[in-house]
Amino acid sequence: MMTKEEFEQEIQRIRPQMVVTARRYLDDAEEAEDAVQEVLLRLWQMVDSLRLPIHSLAGILTRNLCIDKVRRRKPLLRMEQVADVGEEPADGGLLEHTMSIIETLPAMQQTIIRLRHMEGMEMKDIAQLTGMTEVAVRKALSRARKAVAMKVMEKKQ
Q1: How far apart are CA 25 and CA 62, in angstroms?
Q2: Which of 101, 115, 107, 116 is nearest to 146 (CA)?
Q3: How far apart are CA 66 and CA 75, in angstroms?
Q4: Sequential DSSP letters for 48-115
């Protein structure tokens, strides 16, 4: 168990490196500071179970939080990417074309891709809703994305 004083001293020692790590991922000083503060809050909530040294755990938490923030910035399936790969069909718009491709997927893949990309749900929430593990959801989503990309490529040829 770590005391409050030990925690404060350790944080003073490792905080600069956490900020550097966050800035490297986020390219924004304010967002990096916010991420570090969020990690420090998480660490404080675990203070009763922490043992020195905590720099490895702090580094991992900082990196993972920053990666999550970067992923949220970018849509996972952008319509511009689909447009670059395939021509828009003459009988309908790009969205309709993509939706028609999604409708050909197996039911669970359709559900997962819709929940993730149209509803913006997190993986853990999709896993709870579908009764699957997060790993299984990620695999199914990956397969669904690949299937959509392959069908778009087939249309182009």
Answers
A1: 10
A2: 101
A3: 16
A4: GG--S--HHHHHHHHHHHHHHHHHHHS-SS-HHHHHHHSPPPTTS-HHHHHHHHHTTS-HHHHHHHHH
- Say if residues 29 and 23 touch (Cβ distance below 8 Å): yes
Exposed e or buried b for every residue in 32-61, given b needs 16+ CB within 10 A?
beebbeebbeebeeeeeebeeebeebbeeb
- If you average pLDDT over residues 48-60, what whole number do you get? 82
Q: CA quadruple 137, 142, 147, 152: dihedral positive or negative?
A: positive
What Cα–Cα distance (Å) separates residue 25 from each residue in 59, 70, 77?
Answer: 12, 8, 21
Gyration radius from the chain CA atoms = 21
Q: Tens of pLDDT along 78-128?
A: 444 444 444 444 455 667 777 888 888 888 888 888 888 877 888 888 888
| Whole-number average pLDDT of the chain | 80
Q: Is residue 90 a contact partner of residue 133, using CB atoms and an 8 Å limit? A: no
